[in-house]
Design brief:
Layout: H1 26-33, H2 36-41, H3 47-60, H4 65-89, H5 93-100, H6 103-136, H7 140-146, H8 150-160, H9 162-187, H10 191-196, H11 208-224, H12 227-236, H13 246-283, H14 293-304, H15 307-339, H16 345-367, H17 372-399, H18 401-404, H19 411-442, H20 447-474, E1 502-506, H21 512-524, E2 529-536, H22 539-544, H23 551-569, E3 573-580, H24 583-594, E4 598-602, H25 608-614, H26 617-624, E5 629-632
Parallel strand pairs: 1-2, 1-4, 2-3, 4-5
Helix pairs in contact: 3-11, 3-13, 4-11, 4-12, 4-13, 4-17, 5-15, 6-7, 6-15, 6-16, 6-17, 7-16, 8-16, 9-13, 9-15, 11-19, 12-15, 12-17, 14-15, 15-16, 17-19, 17-20, 24-26
Protein name: Divalent metal cation transporter MntH
GO molecular function, one term: symporter activity
Subcellular location: Cell membrane; Membrane
Amino acid sequence: MSNNSTPDNHSLGNVHGSVNPESLTGWRKIMAFLGPAYLVSVGYMDPGNWATDIAGGSAFGYKLIWVLFVSNLIALLLQSLAARLGIVRGLDLAQASKNAYPRFVNFWLYILAQVAIIACDLAEIIGMAIGLKLLFHLPLIWGVSLTITDTVLMLYLMNKGMRKLEGFIISMIFIIGVSFLVEMFIVGPHVLDVAKGFIPGNLFKNDAVSQQMLYIAIGIIGATVMPHNLYLHSSLVQTRKITRTEEGFKSAIKFNLFDTVIALNLAFFVNAAILILAATAFFKNGYFQVAEIQDAYKLLEHIFGRIAPVLFAIALIASGQSSTITGTLAGQIIMEGHINLRIEPWLRRLLTRVLAIVPAVFTIIYFGEDALGSLIILSQVVLSLQLGFAVIPLIHFTSDKKRMGNFAISLKVKILAWASAILIVGLNAKLVYDQIGDWLKGNPQADLYIYIFVVPIVIGIALLLVYVFLRPMLYKHADTPIYIPHGIANAINDLDAVEYKHLAITIDFSKNDNDCMRHAIMQGGKHATYTLIHVVETAGARYYGGQVMDSETQSDFDNLDKYVQAMKKLGYKAEGEIGFGNPADAIAGIVNKNGIDFIVMGSHGHKALKDLIFGTTVNSVRHKVNVPVLIVKPQKA
């Protein structure tokens, strides 16, 4: 058994191993492992699930609860396999796929996974916008646009650490659970009828009712197991620091199984509560065709008064907000794992959200708000297409005895896993087939476009799925990663001290200047030359450059000269340089012009939003110069 992960190639590297449960015992140790599955479970409570649960409950009462139960068992199995992969191999599902498949295939696996995340995000956007409209009578297009602001919340929570992020998600789940618990008491379902819903019914009769029931059952299963959740879980379990021994693996797998069972069963109870709520409130009162979330809200208010729909809307907003955060984490995992691309979390969040907002806004403008329900269905079809590309490799990787060792899954688990994969892929294939059939029936004029564009894409995706299934069985890949973001460590034969002859020190006339100069002279001593750089950023400086000579610029010249003279008195060779306009461009220009070979820069020490707004100069300079940069953070008093 080998571990293909390197210290610089950890999944979610900024929080990898950030929670240490090793020194804890008993309940404290269990609590330390709880968390990853809760982040995963919110994907099972998103607006897409709500739509299928409401449709099933309003059309067939309690008869489809057993379908929810079976879906939950499949989800438990697959999520436990994802956790096992992350714990034992120290790789997330995307990283493992990168090692097993060629680069070209990984590129398309990334594209499909990213499209699935955008499709999932689309459902969350619509759900949150509907919740905001129901609570505050906000137009849907405003609500959709406002959802872009959760980028700030995502950035803030990621900077606060994994436990804070998990705490936020768990609080959202608590709000959803309490909302539906209260609603359950309001509608008062019949317990015996609910219990009968757990008895499997016949979905395969040839009558119209059974065909409709089968279609909704496929929707429930298809919306339950989401592909990005498997990527997410295999990475999140690595935020717990474990001893990488056989005993350590056993312990981690056991505690993460507790986490998975508790969290996903809570998700099942929430979904069951939605279906029971719809069955009791609508089916029992003769409303058999409630498929839209807005319709459910109106009927709840009509039948039970104001409290029930308000709780419904609050739960909807909480569900959408928590799901978007986990979608961002999954996006980071697939981007780094499949194609080795790392960008800032806020930028990734913003890009994903914008790509999801555009079709939602387009739909509202050109087709009206009533078309959003169809857009949610379309997003679930897109999710369905991608699911097999996550499930099939996961089963291959966890069955691999060479790499999983004693922790490869047993024959019984393997049979159950492949049966689940066949069921999921088969039912989702039927869903896609039926959807294309509906498009062809609904608009005969669009037949040509569907045959030219849609059908070839579906065939191409099907062939790729066959390749993903066959490749691990026909070709054995090497243990060494094909390529990783930071390369592989080279042998170190000799280390000579580097002497810097010309150093730059960025000056902003703050308390941090003294520390920057101290660190600079530690690098160069009295033999080096020091250039003190200050950039004037006034509006005049940005427009007129060196021609500006306002009072602020003159003051900056005088202050910089005081620093230069002070260093000369101490026996150091110093000179001053003033730059104008954009700080990063000005600093890089002075460095390149003067042949400087080392830069010392002060950091403001901002966090979260302030870091986003103010802390970009250091990073920009780093990319604009080809010399080492030392960043000096201000010391706390």
